[in-house]
Structure formats: structure tokens, C-alpha cells
Amino acid sequence: MGAKSLHPTKQTLIDTVVTLMDTQPAMEINSDQVLEISGISKGSLYHHFEDFPELVEHAMVARFARFVDNSVVMLNGVISSAKTRADLVEGLKKVTRATQAQELTRHRSERVTAIAKAIRIPRMKALLGEEQERLTDALADLFRESVERGWGDPTLDPRIVGVMVQAYTIGKIVDDITPTRMDAENWNQAIDSVLDKVFFPIK
């Protein structure tokens, strides 16, 4: 989504909602707010979007895309700098700690909300699906390259590995909402074990 060129008015409307979502849940944002902040007319809004919910959907996808971009940069950095299996695993362990941090609870919630909404709304599913595919492909490519270098388990399907990594990342929201929280470092070490023993086992 980020790579496509949008009409400046449409982009401004999306950017306005994206910024509002830094401090408000998407469901609490209304069209009057957006029009006042952006300085764009109601007519222009409905010229570019079928309805206000469609604008919010685009903003949710834009925020998701920003996460994908950041993740792809981190992953590419890890694989490009790794000289050995140990380098790769160590780099991925650092990524784990960055993506599993407690302060990202709200971000995980946003991702789950966007995915749940996309499942119900075909037009949003099409948009979000492109970004989701981009992230899954990036993870699969990293694993595929690690197998080519002799580090990853060649019996594992790269795409399945990509989906599994995302599953435990956003799946942490299960613990985010419980009153009795698991120990964060123990969780990270459990993921470390998956990296060491399942995805990149020592041969």
C-alpha cells in the first residue's frame, strides 16, 4: 500500500486518521474530526471514499503497512549481516525482544482488530491481504535463504514458518488481557528455543 501513489486529498485524509489513531481507537474517530483537522470538505471525502468507514479501513491498513515496513527492514538487516547460523539466531532473538515488548500491547491489539475487521469486510480484506502477504513473504524469504545457507531446517515449509512466527507474535495478546501475566523473559526464552531447536537446529 505504501508504494502506491494516491491522490493528495485521499492521502491527506488517510494520514489524518492514521495520526488520530495514535491517541484514539479507530471506532471513536468521526468524520467531523477528520474534516476539521484536515481542512478537506465533506464532498471531497465522499469523492474518494464510498463512506467514512472505508476511510477508517484505509487508515488501519496504512498503520498495518507501517508495521510491515519496519518488520521487513529489521528482518533484512538480520539476514544480510549474518555470517553464521549463530549470527542469524542471535539477530532474530533481538528482533523477538523488540516485537514482544510490553509497550507494544496496543499495537498487537490494533493488528488483531484490523485482521478481525478485514475478515468481515471484503474491501478491507483485499487491502489488508496485500500487506499481510508482504510480511509473510518477507519471513518466508528469510527462512528460505537461511536454508540455502545451510542454517534452517529444510523439511519445514518457509511459508508455514512465516505464518507461525506471526502467530506467536500477535498471539501474545492472549496474555496481554489477563490479570495474571506470564514472565516476559520466560516467554522470550521459549521463542528462543523454537528458533534454536525447530527452525534453525544445530546439525
Detailed description of the structure:
Helices cover 73% and strands 0% of the residues. The chain contains 10 helices and no strands. Helix 1 packs across helix 4 (52-81), helix 5 packs antiparallel against helix 10 and helix 7 (122-148) crosses helix 8. The mean pLDDT is 93.
Listing every helix as H and every strand as E from the N terminus to the C terminus, the arrangement reads HHHHHHHHHH
- Arithmetic mean of pLDDT: 93
Number of helices: 10
Calculate Rg over CA atoms. Answer: 19 Å
Whole-Å distance between the termini?
40 Å
In total, how many beta strands?
Answer: 0
Oligomer category: single chain
What percentage of the residues does DSSP assign to strands (E)? under 5%
Low-confidence spans? none
Proportion in helices: over 70%
SSE layout:
Blueprint: H1 8-20, H2 31-38, H3 42-48, H4 52-81, H5 85-99, H6 105-120, H7 122-148, H8 158-170, H9 173-176, H10 184-199
Helix pairs in contact: 1-2, 1-4, 4-5, 4-6, 4-7, 5-10, 6-7, 7-8
